[in-house]
Design a protein that fits this description.
about 170 residues, 6 helices
Amino acid sequence: VLYEQKIERQITCFNASDVSDLGVVTCGVAFKKSYDTSTHMNEAHGSMYEDLLASYCLYGTHHMLIRRDVIETIRFDEDLRSSQEYDLIIRIAEQYGFDSVPEVLCEQRQSADQISTDYERKLDGARELWSKHNERFWSHSKSCWAYNQLRFSYLLVKFWLGHQLNIPVNHVLP
């Protein structure tokens, strides 16, 4: 759900930003899920590439306003079974800067048919994402590669356990 002022405030940020090669303006997100009712402030400013290689620190794309020329040249990878948003954000951050509006301007809600509840797709997507970005992680730093190796291994175990036990992924492990 996008709040009424979201686009206007993000355009204002685009126009006033001091970030060079600005491609994306983010905002805060209110989570409205059965297991999470928190808010997350996407505090992006400048290059986010290294941060994104180290962790999934920007959640989804609904909170973003992406310049048209950026999204026309860097598109979703429809061959990935899941994690398309994380993949897209990494590839955008490799070339463009980010800025943010320090307000919650959208909500993320839970639906029964979202990809995060489809364990087979999540398992395939985690494997595909690791294969696709493995060299990026390695070339960034050996510690980044090792961290992501552990992170993706953890996700694979978490998704597999959730599937085997037939419980929501957020209830499997921390």
